[in-house]
UniProtKB/TrEMBL annotation:
Pfam families: FliE. It is found in: Bacterial flagellum basal body. This is Flagellar hook-basal body complex protein FliE. Keywords: Bacterial flagellum. Residues 21-33 have a biased composition (Low complexity). Belongs to the FliE family. InterPro entries: FliE. It comes from Nocardioides humi. Residues 1-40 are annotated as: Disordered.
């Protein structure tokens, strides 16, 4: 299992906060068309990663139930990763809804 370094936004604003893995050369070469497109693609990418984690955990659960899984710790790790990712996604969604509601309450 490979551990990839986290990327934090730099002070000058050139960093990326949306990805955990280093961007590929193709991603670096692609110009951003705008903040809305970039944010939307980050959200969709995050949801795709969450779906991938849950699919992996589900597949390993089936293998464990049928006796085809040799190392049970693989399932335990995958289930923990999927759980943490789901909790993070729900927390982000809740904060986004709270922010939207706060904006809607503002008087113009």
């Amino acid at each position: 299992m490979e551990i990839t370094p986290l990327q934090f936004p730099s002070v000058s604003g050139t960093g990326s906060i949306g990805s955990i893995a280093a961007p590929t050369p193709a991603e670096r070469a692609t110009p951003a068309t705008g903040p809305d497109t970039e944010f939307g693609s980050l959200v969709l990418d995050g949801l795709d990663r969450l779906e991938g984690l849950t699919d992996k955990a589900d597949g390993l659960a089936v293998q464990a139930a049928t006796g085809k899984l040799e190392n049970i710790h693989d399932y335990t790790i995958a289930a923990s990763e999927a759980s943490v990712a789901s909790q993070l996604t729900v927390a982000l969604r809740n904060r986004a809804v709270e922010a939207f509601n706060e904006i809607m309450r503002m008087q113009v």
